[in-house]
Amino acid sequence: MNAPVAEMIPYFIVLPLTVAVLVQLLARRRDALAAGLAGLCMLALALMSLAAALSGAGGEVVYNMGGWATPIGIDLRLDGLTALLLLTVNTVALAVALYAADYMQTFTARPRFYSLFLLMVTGMNGVVMTGDLFNLYVFLEISAIASYALVAFGCEREELEASFKYIVLGSVSSSLILIALALMYGVTGALNMAQVSARVAAGGMDAPLTLAFALFICGFAFKAALVPFHAWLPDAHPAAPAPVSAMLSGVLIKAVGIYVLARLVFNVFGPVAGVLELLCWLGLASMVVGALAALGQNDIKRMFAYSSISQAGFIVLGFGLATPLGLVGALYHLVNHALFKSLLFLNAGAVEYCTGTRKLDELGGLNRALPVTGATSLVGSMSIAGIPPFNGFWSKLIIILACVEAGRYGFAVVAVAVSIVTLAYQLKVQHRAFFAALPEALGAVKREPRRMALAMILLAVGCVALSFAVITGLGDPLLIGDAQAVLSAGIFGAQP
């Protein structure tokens, strides 16, 4: 990665933070200007992310804040894994910002929504780029606090109750992470990830470090909504406006939860055998519990929320296997899930926006009334269910093959069974919402606005494009190989 990319690094944080403030200063009473500023900001971030992803083959760039070198200063780092997460987060956020320009017309105080949205993006970008664990905590709290407010944005009873539960459990997880940071600093005298990694490698894992590691796992398992730390998600994601639900399930639980877990396990503390086994079982429990809970839901958004828990389990299982094939499958499924789960939540939002309900037993016939929503929803449903040739099939297949390769045949069988259950509830959505007869009670269904339709089309095209890249053998889609190499070789854990 070259010098221009190094100079670009701080702007992933500075740009959305600055625009979040400008929205309040310049567009507090001008909704169209607020939406335009947010959209242009996300377009710039998505293009910067693409440039960073294409700029180098697996190299690492360190940017020292204020020119102060580590350990005195704070650094931001860009490597293959960081580039992959930045591209995923900012691409999804661009589609969501486009969708929100129409969807949020039914809400008041829309400029505040865009400021909070940009703050959440700022926090996620900071989490994936920082090389310092305390600053990771700061960025984590920026994104978390913004997401608490966004869940409650509608100010109805359901939103406020869900946000309160989210705040309480989120505060518990943040407290566990902060205690772990204090323990780790007391033992190692460092907060920089590379330095902590070097000192752990030199001195081994004593009791305080083991306790810190355990607290980190619990804290970030909360953020990732892994079973049994998932209680906040089934309420928070359905209650939030659809653009927020898409961000929470699509990228937030990955950027501030699963990604950080992977960094800690592979690049800071090291892949301890017992921890890897724990990740496998956390992934398995999340896969099964999330899928079975989703199967019985009548609320589309609540079904998709439980589905997020299940799909996060696939990703964590791949990381827990800790084989090259398992890591590739986990990373590929992380990207795939960001696209198709964001798409499905935008579909659910379009259904609710146009019909006034998200209950399956009150819907039907929407393929004719909402052709764009129907077509893109079918792409999302088949992708998440793992139906070939859609992108979800390939990432799930890689994870299942990784289980077989590692001799974990029971995990492979469960993964196949969970995929069948996923197909069952996705077919339930397709039949009852889109293919069944249109209920008389719905009356005339209005069409989805153009920008909402365009956002859904973009994400659906992304799902197809990722599948096409695998089918045609166009090589390594979206830096998956470079990201896998970072976790395998511990590039981030090297001494600065």
Oligomer: single chain
* Global Rg: 21 Å
Count of strand segments = 2
Mean pLDDT: 87
Structural category is mainly alpha
Q: Give the proportion of residues in helices.
A: over 70%
Main pleated-sheet profile: 2 strands, antiparallel
Strand order of the largest sheet: 1-2
The string of secondary-structure elements, in order, is: HHHEEHHHHHHHHHHHHHHHHH
Q: Proportion of β residues?
A: under 5%
Regions with little confidence, pLDDT below 50 for 5+ residues: 491-496
What's the number of helices? 20
Taking the alpha carbons of the first and last residues, their distance comes to 16 Å
The shape is globular
List key phrases describing it.
single chain; 496 residues; mainly alpha; two-stranded antiparallel sheet; 2 strands
Describe this structure in words.
This protein has a two-stranded antiparallel ribbon. The chain has a domain at 271-490. It is built from 20 helices and 2 strands. The protein is mainly α and 496 residues long.
Short characterization:
This protein is mostly helical and 496 residues long.
List the helices and strands and how they pair.
Layout: H1 3-8, H2 11-26, H3 31-54, E1 61-64, E2 75-78, H4 80-103, H5 110-129, H6 133-151, H7 157-188, H8 193-203, H9 207-224, H10 233-239, H11 242-268, H12 273-295, H13 300-321, H14 324-355, H15 366-369, H16 371-385, H17 391-405, H18 409-435, H19 450-471, H20 480-489
Helix pairs in contact: 2-3, 2-5, 3-4, 3-5, 4-5, 4-11, 4-14, 4-19, 4-20, 5-6, 5-11, 6-7, 6-11, 7-9, 7-10, 9-11, 10-11, 10-13, 11-13, 11-14, 11-20, 12-13, 12-18, 13-14, 13-17, 13-18, 14-16, 14-17, 14-19, 14-20, 16-18, 16-19, 17-18, 17-19
